[in-house]
Every structure is written in structure tokens, then in C-alpha cells.
UniProtKB/TrEMBL annotation:
Cited Pfam families: Glyoxalase
InterPro entries reported for this sequence: Extradiol_RC_dioxygenase, Glyas_Bleomycin-R_OHBP_Dase, Glyas_Fos-R_dOase_dom, VOC_core
Protein name: Glyoxalase family protein
Species of origin: Actinopolyspora saharensis
Taxonomic path: Bacteria, Bacillati, Actinomycetota, Actinomycetes, Actinopolysporales
VOC domain segment(s): 7-132, 154-272
């Protein structure tokens, strides 16, 4: 393929209780709720977007929280870990902060020259905080809960678990995500010039049990396309190469196409445009339930179905208005 991605756009996972999910990602991890909406394919379920102040591509973690969802199973054929980027000097602070929040966290581990902490969210989703040796230029969301000097800068990487790496590596290479190193059975690939937000690790585990996508697991991994024309050209190239790809879907804040990589993980190519201020101003991001035009006539029914969700005041501090 002739079109390449510049890095991760977002990661979407399945959760259980939406209030518990929001409390963890807003208060414990210090992200911002940049959009409160619904799963467009199942509008009786929230779709919650967390990211930086604006919800820039590459900072986004999103969830479909299903009340009573059964636990998933981590295994081959899925993304088994999601990592966020933090400053190099902040690992100790995060270790203390997570312990104080009652989160069981690993010892500091070093992979690919980067220190990392690994833990799980309340639904069992595997997360890491990774300190890249070079400064991450992305600005954190300064919400007063997590000090800005320690704040999450955005996504760092995802980990895919596969039986065999050859076909997965070939597809990644065709997306401009190229091999950059290996430690044991862990292969690192990087989009563009690499760096936090552009990495994907592929862990090879021949014959390991297959995963089951449900609560506490990743649903899909999205990669960036700058605009709709690039996405359309990319879709044509995928189809021409024999990949089964969805039609272009309107996700209101970006346009999407979906397909599976040979190892089994569902991938998405999402446009950078139009972004999360398309239907509400920056200062009010995430406060109100936003619906796309085709679901707006059903607002009363949808709101009656969804559980109540309370956002902490830190999601929109008054100082932003000054």
C-alpha cells in the first residue's frame, strides 16, 4: 500500500459499570471526558471518550460500558495491553499515586529502553504507563487531580497477541508501520518516525488460548488518517489487496473503516477530522449527552434507558474560561 498512518488515533474497549469507568479514568488517571455519547450501533449503551483537553487523535481511550457485561478473556487474536505515555521522571509518582488509589501495580519494568508500570482498570483491562527516554511534546490535561508535570501525554502503544507474526507484520508494514526491534517474543513496530503514540508491539505466543472480547478487553485499535480522501484511497487499496473492509461509517467526530489484521485483532482507520468540538464548544466537552442527528428524534427514549452518569467538576475547571 502507498498510504501510511502517522500513529494511533484511539483505542476502544469494553467496560462494565459506566460510573466506575468514568471515576477511574477521570480521577485516577486524570484524563478528560471529551465526549459523552452512545454506541451508534447500540444506542442503549454509552460511548465514553477520554483524552487530552481537546481530544486530539493519539490521546484517546474510549469505552462501551455495558451494565452486567460478562468478563472477557485475554488471549491471542486481540489487543491485550494499552499503554499511555508519561514523563520519564514521573514513574515513581505514578507508582505511589496508584497504590494510594488502591490499584495493584507492578514493579517498574524496562522494555525497549523504557520504564513501565503495568496494572489493570476496575474491569480488568491491562494498562501500562510508559516513560519514553525522550520528552513527549504533547501537553497533558491539567485537571488539578494529577499534577501537569506528571500527567498522561496520550497513548504510547498497544500490544497485539498472535500465534504467528509473519502475516500481521506484513499487514502492518503495508500500513507504514515497520519493524523497529525485538526482545524475545516481543516485536516492536513503529509508524512514521516512531515515538509515543506510534508504537505497536506484537507478542508471539504459538498455540496460546484465544481471547474473548467482553468486559475488560479491547474491542478495536484505530489508526490515523488525516482526512476523508486519504481514508477513501486507503480503503480502495485494502479492498484491492483482498482485505474485507467495511464501508465508510460516520462516527460524527471522525469517519471510520474497519477490518481485521491476520492475527485476529479488529483495526480501524479513523480520520483526524472533524474532531470533538463539532457539536459542542471546548469548555463544555463531555458535559452533556450528545447524539448524532439520526438518533436525536429518539433522545427521550435513549436518555430513559441509559444509567445516570455524574462527572467530577474537574472535567471542566472554571480556570479554562479565563
Amino acid at each position: 500500500m502507498t498510504i501510511s498512518t502517522s500513529g494511533l488515533h484511539h483505542v476502544t474497549a469494553i467496560a462494565g459499570d459506566p460510573q466506575r469507568n468514568a471515576d477511574f479514568y477521570l480521577r485516577t488517571l486524570g484524563l478528560r471526558m471529551v465526549k459523552t455519547t452512545v454506541n451508534f450501533d447500540d444506542p442503549g449503551t454509552y460511548h465514553l471518550y477520554y483524552g487530552d483537553e481537546v481530544g486530539r487523535p493519539g490521546t484517546l481511550m474510549t469505552f462501551f460500558p455495558f451494565h452486567g457485561a460478562p468478563p472477557g478473556k485475554h488471549g491471542n487474536g486481540q489487543a491485550t495491553a494499552t499503554a499511555f505515555s508519561v514523563p520519564e521522571q514521573s514513574i515513581g509518582w505514578w507508582q505511589r499515586h496508584l497504590n494510594e488509589a488502591g490499584v495493584e501495580v507492578s514493579r517498574v519494568q524496562n522494555r525497549e529502553g523504557e520504564d513501565a508500570l503495568t496494572f489493570q482498570d476496575p474491569d480488568g483491562l491491562v494498562l501500562s504507563l510508559v516513560a519514553h527516554p525522550h520528552p513527549d511534546p504533547r501537553a497533558p490535561w491539567d485537571n488539578g487531580v494529577v499534577p501537569a508535570e506528571h500527567g498522561i501525554r496520550g497513548l504510547h502503544s498497544v500490544t497485539l497477541s498472535v500465534d504467528s507474526e509473519e502475516d500481521t507484520a506484513e499487514m502492518l508494514g503495508g500500513m507504514g508501520i515497520t519493524f523497529s526491534g525485538q526482545e524475545g517474543n516481543r516485536l516492536r513496530f513503529a509508524a512514521g518516525s516512531g515515538g509515543p503514540g506510534a508504537f505497536v508491539d506484537v507478542v508471539v505466543r504459538p498455540g496460546a488460548e484465544r481471547g474473548l472480547v467482553a468486559s475488560g478487553t479491547v474491542h478495536h485499535v484505530a489508526w490515523r488518517a488525516p482526512d476523508e480522501s486519504t481514508q477513501a484511497a486507503w480503503r480502495s487499496e485494502l479492498v484491492d489487496s483482498g482485505v474485507s473492509v467495511t464501508s465508510v461509517l460516520d462516527r460524527q467526530y471522525f469517519r471510520s473503516i474497519y477490518f481485521r489484521e491476520p492475527g485476529g485483532t479488529l483495526l480501524e482507520i479513523a480520520t483526524d477530522e472533524p474532531g470533538f468540538t463539532a457539536d459542542e464548544p471546548l469548555l463544555e466537552l463531555g458535559r452533556a449527552l450528545k447524539l448524532p442527528p439520526w438518533l436525536e428524534p429518539n433522545r427521550e427514549q435513549i436518555e430513559a434507558t441509559l444509567p445516570r452518569l455524574d462527572l467530577p467538576s474537574e472535567n471542566n475547571p472554571e480556570r479554562l474560561a479565563s
